[in-house]
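Subject: mismatched residue count in predicted assembly?

I count 573 residues in my input, but I want to confirm that the predicted structure covers every chain. Input:
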Amino acid sequence: MTTTKIYKYAAAVVFAALMTVPTIAFAQIGTVITVAGNVLDEVTRNPVMVNVVFSDETGTRAGSSRSNSKDGSYLVTGLKPGKKYKVRLEQSEYFQAEYEIALPNTGKYAEISRDFLVKPLVKGTKFPARNTPFDLKKSKLRIGANDILDDFKRSLLINPNVNIEIQCFPDNDDDKAVNTKLTQDRCNALREYFAKAGISDKRLSVKPSDTVDSMNPPPIQSRQGKRYVGSTYFVVTKF
Amino acid sequence: MKILRWQGIVCMLVIIQAAAGYLQAQRMYEMKTLGKHSDEVLGVFVNENNTKFATCSIDETIKLWSLPEGKELKTLTGHVGQVNNISFSGNGKLLASASSDRTVRIWDVESGKQKSILNGHTAEVIGVYFSQDANSTFLASTSFDQTVKLWDTKLQSEVKTLRGHTMQANNVAYSYDGKYLASCSDDKTIKIWSTDISSKDPILTLTGHNSHVLTALYSFDSKLLASADQDGTIKIWKMPSGELVRTINAHSDLVQDVSFAADNQTLVSASLDKSVKLWNVNTGENLMTMDVGVEVWSVDLTSNARTIIIGCADGSVRMLSETVKGKMPKKGGK
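Triage response: the counts match. Full output below for your records.
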């Protein structure tokens, strides 16, 4: 091997080595995503201190944080782009809560935001349904009711010791007998919905009503065609 | 005697000239009903090139309409709560909707299909506004949870949450240069935020409204911001300084919606006092008042202000067409 050849060979080796350094470094560092947000009490909207635990699809813990009691803020970093995570919120005075979060598939560092609500575990606490799951004067669950009820359904599945009372109110004060039948049927439809999801109906009691909800009454001057559908509540009776 | 006669003639001429000027400034419109939602119409948005507009309603639907015909094209369903507001993307291909079901949904305008659901707000979503930059995939939303959230619709991800309002956040708007967001709230303020991802505190807080601020909107040149409140007052702010330029006691009931024309000086307002009014924001002059006969929640206009679309409390969607042509450049949407 001539001296020139040796130099050329050495230069090639050095070049190859230099090229691999950034690759190795990139592979070691990788792209990460940070998730930050606030945890709030669903009823009072006050900040809550809870453990926020991220697990990957295999159930392996990927990161955790304790939210700040002053503002509810938390931050979890080191998460992988394009992956789905289960977020578990734990605190003894609140329902355990689980959310799924799918992180964007990005090639560069990203910080994304996500707030969470937790339900206080207090007997008598009344949680209104996010929207009415019924159509006007109907007792059959409306199209899209699953979107409205899904959050509470998941809460009951994750918290098997919690019992609730389902309260339904009518759409007007016209006929008490009709209202009792309507709201009993609505309560039963909801009990059936939760039971189908695997929640024991022993955990579910019902309370129909023959008068409209005094906490959320129909508008006094209801315009023609304006819809008012009676409220639905889930009340904690035991935990 | 002669002097007095001449003075009289001059006075008459001045009066006639003033009256002629007033009549010239006044714009005349005729109204027709295009169709109906089955409940109150809360939002109207005209797209960038004035070929379509969208309406949203308490009836949980969104409707797409053609312009200038005013023909109903599609009804978009999927929300499970009233749809409070809508916004076309800058290129007009996407539509975003904000709903009481706590979601923002993205729709493909051509097919009418729902493309994605953005979950993240913890209460009803009230306002939504796409960045009007045709290449941007960002939008902003406001909610009863008091936050403003910024979303990347391409990544289908919440990018940042802006906190600062102390009561429910009612509406939000991008500046047309894409640099700022304006949000307004029941806390009687308007907050100006940078759209820069790393910035999380408001740049400015505009105070001066005496009641809940229901809407805020930038002019096309991003040099003015109009805000309207529950008392029916409209304020015009110079941007980016935030200096108050003008206060207009515009209506006798709340003003939920305003919109600029492309000339950056003509503003339309709609109110629950059952009227729609057109203003010159430079002078504060009222250019048109139309008694609609029913409460009006929402309004938008084509860029030349010759067509105004309103959404009414009786579910009707109405078009106001100018009967005498004005002189306006052709450009822009809401």
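Helices of chain A lie at 3-29, 145-158, 176-196. Marking this ticket as 'not a bug'.
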